[in-house]
Amino acid sequence: MNLSSPVGLATDILSRPVKSLLRSFPKKPGAAPGTLVYTGPERIDPVAVHLIEYDWDVLEERELEADTSFPELAGSERLTWINVDGLNEVDLIRDIGTAFGLHPLVLEDLVHTGQRPKVEENEDYFFVVLRMLTLDDTTLAVKNEQIGIVFGDGYVLSFQERAGDVWEGVRERIRGKSGRIRGRGADYLAYALIDAIVDNYFNILETFAEQVEALEEEVLEAPSQETMHRIHTLRREMFVVRRAVWPLRELANALVRTESTLIDPGTGVFLRDVYDHTIQVVDAAETLREVVSGLMDLYLSSVSNRMNEIMKVLTIMASIFIPLTFLAGIYGMNFETMPELGFRWAYPALLGVMAVMAVGLVVFFKKRGWL
Amino acid sequence: MNLSSPVGLATDILSRPVKSLLRSFPKKPGAAPGTLVYTGPERIDPVAVHLIEYDWDVLEERELEADTSFPELAGSERLTWINVDGLNEVDLIRDIGTAFGLHPLVLEDLVHTGQRPKVEENEDYFFVVLRMLTLDDTTLAVKNEQIGIVFGDGYVLSFQERAGDVWEGVRERIRGKSGRIRGRGADYLAYALIDAIVDNYFNILETFAEQVEALEEEVLEAPSQETMHRIHTLRREMFVVRRAVWPLRELANALVRTESTLIDPGTGVFLRDVYDHTIQVVDAAETLREVVSGLMDLYLSSVSNRMNEIMKVLTIMASIFIPLTFLAGIYGMNFETMPELGFRWAYPALLGVMAVMAVGLVVFFKKRGWL
Amino acid sequence: MNLSSPVGLATDILSRPVKSLLRSFPKKPGAAPGTLVYTGPERIDPVAVHLIEYDWDVLEERELEADTSFPELAGSERLTWINVDGLNEVDLIRDIGTAFGLHPLVLEDLVHTGQRPKVEENEDYFFVVLRMLTLDDTTLAVKNEQIGIVFGDGYVLSFQERAGDVWEGVRERIRGKSGRIRGRGADYLAYALIDAIVDNYFNILETFAEQVEALEEEVLEAPSQETMHRIHTLRREMFVVRRAVWPLRELANALVRTESTLIDPGTGVFLRDVYDHTIQVVDAAETLREVVSGLMDLYLSSVSNRMNEIMKVLTIMASIFIPLTFLAGIYGMNFETMPELGFRWAYPALLGVMAVMAVGLVVFFKKRGWL
Amino acid sequence: MNLSSPVGLATDILSRPVKSLLRSFPKKPGAAPGTLVYTGPERIDPVAVHLIEYDWDVLEERELEADTSFPELAGSERLTWINVDGLNEVDLIRDIGTAFGLHPLVLEDLVHTGQRPKVEENEDYFFVVLRMLTLDDTTLAVKNEQIGIVFGDGYVLSFQERAGDVWEGVRERIRGKSGRIRGRGADYLAYALIDAIVDNYFNILETFAEQVEALEEEVLEAPSQETMHRIHTLRREMFVVRRAVWPLRELANALVRTESTLIDPGTGVFLRDVYDHTIQVVDAAETLREVVSGLMDLYLSSVSNRMNEIMKVLTIMASIFIPLTFLAGIYGMNFETMPELGFRWAYPALLGVMAVMAVGLVVFFKKRGWL
Amino acid sequence: MNLSSPVGLATDILSRPVKSLLRSFPKKPGAAPGTLVYTGPERIDPVAVHLIEYDWDVLEERELEADTSFPELAGSERLTWINVDGLNEVDLIRDIGTAFGLHPLVLEDLVHTGQRPKVEENEDYFFVVLRMLTLDDTTLAVKNEQIGIVFGDGYVLSFQERAGDVWEGVRERIRGKSGRIRGRGADYLAYALIDAIVDNYFNILETFAEQVEALEEEVLEAPSQETMHRIHTLRREMFVVRRAVWPLRELANALVRTESTLIDPGTGVFLRDVYDHTIQVVDAAETLREVVSGLMDLYLSSVSNRMNEIMKVLTIMASIFIPLTFLAGIYGMNFETMPELGFRWAYPALLGVMAVMAVGLVVFFKKRGWL
Question: How far does D323 lie from chain C, in Å, by closest CA?
């Protein structure tokens, strides 16, 4: 019997704290708004700032030093894309914010890394918050990173919690002059960045689908308490995805419906495409949720069926042998006057009776479909 | 006892991968939009392009060769219906798209075969995505094919993932000049194609209803763990249908409410009819879903009842014979001083007591309704 | 023990096929719209056409022959109510449709007997589809008949699947000149017909309420697997009612809000009354649904409790007698050196010990509340 | 063991017929609208009509006789409040209706006592239907009475199913000239009546909260099948309350938003207050519903835990003594050649082995946390 | 065995009465509106009134005495913030209300401490009701206090049920001239107060998240009936939070969308920030609710699995030893003619047979995965 409790593994799986589902809320009620305090997990990596500046003819790409003059960059004629990896240097972020004229509350939202996806339209720029999901390769836990994108006339600013993203394809298109991207404005670049993040959700969901499939097989073939833990964990990871995905529809819709002149009418059709994709992502997430929820029903019914199987074995064994043991007990009594004890054929006759009883019970259980 | 696990069959039933529920998402986050990459399952069948060109008097019907001049077709005076079976030759699709002036994103949606049903209204054409469901004859699994329909002034383009469709009736009506179809425009032909697909859903749902009925009988007469798997599988297939069916209402509603001049007012009443049908389909799908969900409750209660039956048998057998065995055990003891052992009538008297006890317990169980 | 499975009765109850919940969809995807093919169950009864023609002074009532000139009736000065029982003679329905100028799709809907309740407003007439529910007297199954009502200026046409309806009261009011009905127009007559059908739902729901009550008693007093089947069946019948009832709100609302001149402002207040009634019907149906769903919880808890009772009996019997049997077994051993066997008071002492043990266990179980 | 079934009490609790949840629907489909037939439970109490007529200076209060001239009252200069207790004298109600110019359908709604709460705005008066809930002191069943309130310029008519109401406080304020009530119009009086009914819901809900609390304690301390019945009954009573409470929001909202000149702008702020209260009532009802539903989960888990406890006792007893009994059985065999039987220390040695086995099993069960 | 019932602790946990979930409804149906009767729990603490009066240059802060002239304060040139701790002195509240021109119903809402969060816009002031949640340090029960905030031109009034709040940070910012607060108006101060309350919800939710996490571990490692009680209690506490949190969205939205001149356009962006935070709070509360609900499923499946484990042990023990005991019983019979008894190798042979049977059963159970 497997007496070792399955807790060891399950606890590992559940090592993600529930609190992380609500991570990085502002913690000081009553503090002044617009105070820049980074609230994400502590980081020791240095912050990296990457610049891509381009128009149709020229492309410049470089890492920015600490002493960069951001106001100068803000005044550039070419399209300027500044990407910040790491949010813990709030002074840097304040410098960039000042150079591009961002509102203090936008800066606060950028460093408070528990934002819900949203879009804010200002006169001079759009501010978009998204969540970039990536999968830990070994544990398959969803890593959930806040991405802030600000775009205005001639510039795109992107802020990530840490290095590593899904935008390499976009960078390649810029470098390789492939497609329309070099000939279009900041709105199109922002669209490309958002599109890459949304497309990446499909990969996440596909990995989940594979996990669901593996779990389905496990439920059918060898369900254990650990299976249930896995289902529970999967559901929890799905919460993370759903929280990231649900507000996207509204976000994409707001971008589609805006009347701001910052968005070129020609970009509108691409934004509608993003909107379609977000609806597909939401749809797929809902489907997975329902499959997982059906899986739990399947698991519970499977547990009940196993119980039935166990009880059947017990009942059959006990029902056959308990009456026979009683009969044997009768003739094990020591009464002086028990005439049967002296009959010659009594013993084999009793064995015969016992055999008939046993066969009768077996037939009875067969008829009930228990055998 | 049925010791062979029912997994064999169930795994077969479940051979449809969960991933297929989310099939054919674009896979390259960051790739340029409008890139034509076919994302459906790999196909080796050649792509077939079928043309029907007609007005009230003339009908021409032929398979198109690889070197067809599509711009010429696009300029035809008659109503032109081009049907493409197979989406893997993206060059062909790009040629058609260019000839009829379609937007690159429309072409991308045509070959990305995981679209949600939708309608897009452009100035010069409507783009409709539907899902055509067909049942595999042997496994009764739902096959789910994306259908793209583009219609504009004087032409209808339809794109299917593979050969075989539900439009033979429409073709017959065109060929046989039956009904109004030969006298009407592209909007009416598109309506007829959509209507045929929606009508076909009823057939799918009816086959599901038959399966539900068979399952209901199975639950009532001989429920097993496999029954539960079947219910689970059926629910999953129903997800596929629901995802195809739900967006239809919105789609049909958008067609009914459009103010585009591409749709003749006389066609409006037929589109309203399609809208009514989609509502009926959604309704029927919901009813089936609720019946299946009730089936699961029925199954679980049936499992509980079976457990009760099993426990009753065990309890009755054990409760009757364990006390009797104890009594027999008493008189099987070897104490030197056990006066009863010497009494002449002790043995039959004890047998009498035992019979009375057994009868008493039987009466007790009868009263509780267990027998 | 009741070993005969309760399936016999349950199967009877469930003799209504699931398919009937989705009955009479059009079956030929791709067929031309407006094709008149009756899709209901096959009928051999002849179709009966009943005419009531009246104004304030004159009333004429007769069965119409096969060769009636409908265009003549359509031109009558008086209010003309033609009621058709049976939809299988499509030529007759086409004749009526032509005489009163109905659209082919309206005729198609009339004979396709799986319509969802709806109202269609045309320039010259209103087309209302309702479902008339009647209860089979013996099995209490809900019979679900499509009723089509067309009313325009000076005429009301009503189409039923079969003879027998809930309109006898309306006819009596017309014949007896009671109330306002003889002095009002076609809109009021149509209102009276709809009102009678809606009022009849209350009767159906009351019969359901009685069944629910009987089931509640059964669950409390003698729940069996069959009870669960009954609950399941009742739920399924409730689906039929809900599907007939839910769209009514929208339908009644559309009639209340119409601005058509076909509806006299004086009739508006009565239509609002119908609207109120439909809301009450929907409300009552929801209440019943919730009670039935609570009944299922009650049933499941009752099954669990019974299981507990059974297990208690088993545990008490086994826990008391198994240790005693063990003790008896000890002194039934045949060791040569077992000094207790020779003691004079050993036997009664052992019996005493056994009695103490038994009493101790009984007290233990009493304390736990199991006795 | 408590063998007496708990049905006796439960049936008492459930003595409220399910039908009463849908009480007093009109029963005669096809009858003319506006027919005054009282549909509530039969009553033999005489109908009482109470009049309060007042302005700032004068107050007159009396019971009205059968031969009152209502038209005269309707013409009174002062504010006239006529309260009718009992709806079974339809002639009286018709007289009042005629005197105050009420529509026949309003009168029909007044005597058809199954109305859903609603407000109807007419040119000359408002018609409000509410449900007054009172608790039966002994059984705590909710009594559900329809209240009709009609108010127009200078008069308020209130119709109750039976004597006894929650308006004594309002009457006292009128008599004692306390607050604003004597100086305001019919709209304010109507507001005061509605407000009193809504406030009373809080009392009902508080009594429910106490019952829920008692049930919670019962579930935690001594859950029985009867507990489940009580939960079920409570849920059913809650349906009654919810049906009365839900439509109130809409009703209060309609009163707040009306533009009728019958409602003084100064009364608007009080109506908004009623609206706030109805939202609080709905809120509280929802909270209670969720607590009760959580209670059911708690109950079911408690039943499962008890089952576990029972099974543990059985398993421990059986697992310890069945192997020991087997050992004793071995040495109770009568083989001629069983050398152990002759060994001197065999008997005590065997007893020792048995003790070790028993202790070993106890330790095993302790480790698993079963002891 | 743990025979001591876990009720002791659980009752403690549940010591919060259900009624408190609906606390402090007005209790006297029919009483005049605007009557100031404090309905919260009885308090003996004296009421404290705190004044902060400031502009950019000057700050005055003091406790107000009983004989303060509020009209004088109302006329102050500087921004006046009066905070009242304790609502039981209704005369004081009436004085303040009169001085600042508040409507009697606003005062009634201030002292009726069961209000739902809401905002009321009047011509001269805004009236906001919020619920301030604090956690009891030892029991972790949520304390739920009503906060009324009134702000108009140049003044903010805040009313708390008792001393102690989350506004110390705001007071510090005023005193320390940090941030913008000293330079802005009453609308900004009110925003700061609301913001502090909303931010505090995150702390509450984080504590809940920690509790959920501890419970999750308990369910995985050592679930008991008490665990279920804890889950139930947690769910109930979550109701309190949800009822405080849900209406916030609407409230914040109303403040964002108001067109009142009392709110400076520059404050609007901060109110939008509050709105974003409320959406995050609602989101987080929903996530927690879903995790808790998944926890209950996990618990129930864990109970079922434990039952399975117990039954397996019982079945294995019984199935192995009952047949062996039967065999021993056979050879314990006292028939005179039992030839096997005399065979020399009979005894060891039988022991061998028994061993083979036991091993066979062990192998059988191993194969089924029970061992």
Answer: 9
In this predicted model, which residue has the larger pLDDT, C229 or A36? C229
Residue numbers of chain D with a pLDDT score lower than 50 = 1-15, 23-24, 27
How far is residue D133's CA from residue D88's CA, in Å, rounded to a whole number? 20
Which tokens in the block code for residue C345? 């008071």
pTM reported for the whole predicted model: 0.79
Contact between D17 and C335 using a beta-carbon 8 Å cutoff: no
Residue A315 at interface with chain B, using a CB cutoff of 8 Å: yes
Q: Do E173 and A115 touch (CB under 8 A)?
A: no
- CA atoms of E97 and E220, how far apart (whole Å): 55
> For position C140, what pLDDT does the model report?
66
pLDDT at B15: 44
How does strand D79-85 pair with strand C79-85? unpaired
Q: How far is residue C175 from each of residues B357, C77, C101, C168, C180, measured CA to CA in Å?
A: 77, 18, 28, 10, 12
Is the predicted pLDDT of residue E3 greater than 50, yes or no? no
Q: How far apart are the first and last CA of chain E?
A: 24
Q: What is the mean pLDDT of residues E22-35?
A: 61
SS3 A110: helix
d(CA E19, CA D207): 9
Q: Which two tokens stand for residue B296?
A: 């699961």
Q: Which range is most confident: A333-347, C139-153, E2-16?
A: A333-347
CB neighbours of residue B69 within 10 Å: 11
Q: Which of B314, B320, B350, B361 to mutate to test the interface with A (most CBs of A within 10 A)?
A: B314
pLDDT in tens, D239-256: 778 888 888 888 888 898
- pLDDT range class, residue B27, cuts 50, 70, 90: very low
Q: Does A332 touch chain B (CB under 8 A)?
A: yes
Mean pLDDT for the stretch of residues C109-119: 85
pLDDT band of residue B137 (cuts 50, 70, 90) is low
Q: Which residues does chain A have within 8 Å of residue B324's beta carbon, measured at their own beta carbons?
A: 326, 329
- DSSP bridge pairs for D118: D129
Q: Do D304 and E303 touch (CB under 8 A)?
A: yes
Q: Are strands C142-152 and C125-135 parallel, antiparallel or unpaired?
A: antiparallel
CA distance B102 to B111: 13
Q: Nearest-CA neighbor of D288 among D197, D225, D204?
A: D204
pLDDT in tens, D282-333: 888 888 888 888 888 888 888 888 888 888 999 999 999 999 999 999 999 9
DSSP codes, E221-276:
H---HHHHHHHHHHHHHHHHHHHHHHHHHHHHHHHHH---TTS-HHHHHHHHHHHH
Q: Which of residues 10-49 of D touch C (CB under 8 A)?
A: 10-11, 14, 17-19, 21-22, 25-35
**Chain E residue with minimal CA distance to D308?**
E307
- Dihedral sign for Cα D257, D262, D268, D270, please: negative
- Note whether C223 and C307 are within 8 A (CB): no
- H-assigned helices in E258-340: 265-330
Choose among E217, E280, E300: nearest Cβ to A116: E280
Q: Which amino acid is at E25?
A: F
Please list, in sequence order, all residues whose beta carbon lies within 8 angstroms of the beta carbon of residue C163, skipping any fewer than 6 positions away. Answer: C45, C48, C85, C86
C-alpha distance from residue A7 to each of A140, A208, E219, E226, E298 (Å): 19, 23, 10, 19, 13
Residue D316 amino acid letter: I
Interchain pair C192, D228: CB under 8 A: no
Q: Is E326 on the interface with A (CB under 8 A)?
A: yes
Q: Is A150 within 8 Å of A42 (Cβ atoms)?
A: no
pLDDT confidence of residue D28? 62
Instruction: Find, in chain E, the residue whose alpha carbon is nearest to that of D305.
Output: E225
